[in-house]
Each structure stands twice: as C-alpha cells, then as structure tokens.
Write a structure and sequence with these properties.
Blueprint lengths: L1 H31 L36 E5 L8 E11 L9 E5 L5 E4 L1 E3 L1 E3 L10 E5 L3 E2 L2 E2 L5 H6 L2 E8 L8 E3 L3 E3 L4 E4 L2
Parallel strand pairs: 9-12
Antiparallel strand pairs: 1-2, 1-5, 2-3, 2-10, 3-4, 6-13, 7-10, 7-13, 8-9, 10-11, 11-12
C-alpha cells in the first residue's frame, strides 16, 4: 500500500504546485496584465482634407472669386504652355447674333472686351487634380518657388491669374503640383474649369 500511496501523494503534490503556479499566472493576466504583450499602437488617422469652401452668402469662395465671375483671355490656351486670364463680369452673353462672343467688364481696369475665350471655375478638390487638367492659378503669392492661394480679397481681385495644364502630381506630398511652363502651385491655389 505504501508503494501506491507515495506515488499518489507525489502526483497530488505536483498537480497542486502546478495549479498554484497556474493560478498565479492567471491572476497576473486578469489583475495587472503583466504577462500580456502591449496592444499595437492605433493606426494614425489623418483627417480628410477639408473641402474647399463653396461661395458664401456674399458669393465669394476661399479665393475671393464670386459666383458671377469669369476668367477671360484674348485666345484659348490651345498649344501655349500657359496664358494670362483676367477676372471679369459678363455684360452681354454670347449668342449667334454676337458670333459666339460674350462682352465682359474686366475687374482690374474697368474696360469692356468681346471674346469667345471665357471660363467659369471653382476651387479644385483632390479628385479633380489629374494629369492634363486645365487649371487656373493665382500668381500673386509665391513662396519658396510655389504659387499659393490669395490671402486677401484685394490681392485676388486685382492680381494676376494664369491658365495652364497639370503636368506632374508626384510632389503632391510636398504640397505642390507642377503645371505647364514648369511652375509649381499649391493644391489650395488651383481652380478647375466648370463645364
């Protein structure tokens, strides 16, 4: 009988010690989590870019361009690398009677011009920035070789604007796109044509 009791006692002792050790580990997990590996850090969440502000009640967007503003030029962009465009108001809409030309009042000098090269535009959103897109850019706020959006109404409405085509988007992460002519523009300074 001694031969059976001693091994049984040894087995019970081992099981008891193992259970006590297991109990201590379980308490560590539940009470202080010291045996747990730390949870992975949360994925960084970048807030989506704020969409460009639509025209306000006063009719101006973030570039101080009003709902009834047009950009005009003597000729279309065509094969030019870029052309200057001028902020204007339509006086006479184009018609068959005017051979498709509209009459415009240029905001900067107050003179009237007839042209068939005129465009409405809005501030570009990220999805509209693509290679070959025809864009309008404010020229009056250049920093570090990059054209930035106008920072004041008087600058926007009396400064120079130009039209070009997007030629390179690979530097968007640096805060600019390249347009024909090799010019760099902040995405916040880009307007696209309204069709």
């Amino acid at each position: 009988m001694k031969q059976v009791v001693i091994p049984v006692i040894l087995v019970l002792l081992c099981v008891g010690i193992a259970r006590a050790d297991l109990w201590n580990e379980a308490q560590k997990l539940v009470i202080d989590g010291s045996s747990l590996s730390p949870p992975p850090p949360p994925e960084p969440v970048e807030p989506p870019p704020a969409p460009a502000r639509e025209p306000s009640a006063s009719g101006e967007d973030d570039h101080y361009i009003q709902r009834d503003d047009f950009f005009i030029s003597e000729q279309p962009l065509g094969t030019h690398e870029w052309i200057y465009v001028h902020l204007s108001k339509m006086v006479t809409p184009p018609s068959s009677r005017t051979k498709g030309e509209g009459e415009f009042f240029k905001v900067t000098d107050g003179n009237r011009y007839w042209t068939r090269s005129f465009w409405k535009s809005h501030i570009a959103n990220a999805g509209e920035l693509r290679l070959g897109a025809v864009v309008i850019i404010f020229e009056g706020a250049s920093r570090d070789g990059v054209y930035h959006a106008p920072d004041a109404k008087d600058n926007a409405r009396s400064g120079n604007w130009f039209m070009a085509k997007v030629t390179d988007l690979s530097d968007l992460y640096k805060g600019y796109v390249t347009v024909s002519g090799g010019y760099k523009a902040s995405p916040k300074n880009i307007r696209v044509l309204v069709r």
